């Protein structure tokens, strides 16, 4: 009923959670890199009902999904509102449910370096670390913060070298891998600040 193919056991699936308000080329870039570097079969974009740490509500789900599909039309990428359908907002909750619903699938949590820096503030972040491999991408402006991140320090000995990134989906967690892909300086907040996104939604001139 959740709209995903059933014959997925043993597949390695990357999960890129985000507000996608709006989706941009930075998201598409790390997704293509994730497929390649981590040897993933698929990536699911989990378009969030709303980041629990962000005070402002994002644009309507339907608009964010439509934009995400336009930005990332790729045969191995699924754009999904599954968190809204599961009624989850916290990543640990989402992962617990997905792992129960799709036993045998090797899920890998994907995120940018900015999220590693604040990862220790997430609900049940220790549980996430010890239950799901995590793939992290360099992001402009976040390298230093990520290096000093509490999660990175506490789990330093479980870090997989970037040269071995392709093994990540098969690693028993805790396991995380930081990959230094060429960085793209795109962000949703910059697009929103330019005013283009909400103006697009109102159907006004670009
Ligand atoms: N240019 C980028 N390089 C690397 N990672 C990125 C980039 N843009 C987004 N990400 C990652 O993609 C995920 C979803 O990002 P999100 O939807 O919050 O976009 P954002 O551009 O970070 O938004 P905002 O500027 O509003 O914080 C996060 O893990 C984020 O770190
Ligand atoms: O679970 C949490 O406590 C938590 C706190 C902050 C962010 N997240 C998730 O991190 C992902 C990236 O969020 P965002 O808003 O930076 O795109 C998205 O899936 C959020 O639901 C999750």
From TrEMBL:
> Which molecular-function annotation in GO is an example for this chain?
ATP binding
One Gene Ontology biological process = NAD+ biosynthetic process
InterPro entries attached to this UniProt entry: Cyt_trans-like, NadD/NMNAT, Rossmann-like_a/b/a_fold
Q: Which domain of life is it from?
A: Bacteria
Keywords in alphabetical order:
ATP-binding, NAD, Nucleotide-binding, Nucleotidyltransferase, Pyridine nucleotide biosynthesis, Transferase
Q: In which pathway does it act?
A: Cofactor biosynthesis; NAD(+) biosynthesis; deamido-NAD(+) from nicotinate D-ribonucleotide: step 1/1
Record-listed E.C. numbers: 2.7.7.18
Record-linked CDD domains: NMNAT (cd02165)
Domain Cytidyltransferase-like: residue ranges: 15-193
Statement: the UniProt record of this protein carries the keyword Nucleotide-binding:
yes
Q: Which SUPFAM superfamilies match?
A: Nucleotidylyl transferase (SSF52374)
Write down the Gene3D superfamilies for this protein, in alphabetical order.
HUPs
Q: Which reaction does it catalyse?
A: nicotinate beta-D-ribonucleotide + ATP + H(+) = deamido-NAD(+) + diphosphate
Q: Which family does it belong to?
A: Belongs to the NadD family.
- What is the designated name of this protein? Probable nicotinate-nucleotide adenylyltransferase
The protein's organism comes out as Albidovulum aquaemixtae
């Amino acid at each position: 009923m959740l709209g995903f193919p059933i014959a997925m056991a043993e597949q390695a699936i990357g999960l890129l959670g985000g507000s996608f308000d709006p989706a941009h080329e930075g998201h598409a870039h790390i997704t293509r890199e994730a497929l390649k570097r981590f040897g993933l079969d698929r990536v699911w974009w989990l378009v969030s009902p709303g980041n629990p740490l962000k005070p402002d509500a994002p644009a309507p789900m339907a608009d964010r999904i439509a934009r995400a599909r336009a930005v990332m039309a790729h045969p191995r990428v699924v754009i999904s509102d599954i968190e809204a359908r599961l009624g989850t907002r916290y990543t640990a909750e989402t992962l617990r449910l997905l792992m129960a619903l799709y036993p045998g699938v090797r899920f890998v949590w994907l995120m940018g370096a900015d999220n590693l820096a604040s990862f220790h503030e997430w609900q049940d972040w220790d549980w996430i670390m010890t239950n799901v491999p995590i793939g992290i991408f360099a992001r402009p402006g976040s390298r230093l913060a990520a290096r000093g991140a509490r999660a990175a320090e506490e789990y330093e000995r479980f870090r997989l070298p970037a040269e071995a990134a392709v093994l990540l989906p098969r690693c028993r967690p805790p396991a995380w891998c930081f990959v230094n892909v060429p960085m793209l300086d795109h962000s949703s907040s910059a697009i929103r600040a330019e005013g283009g996104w909400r103006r697009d939604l109102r159907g006004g001139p670009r």
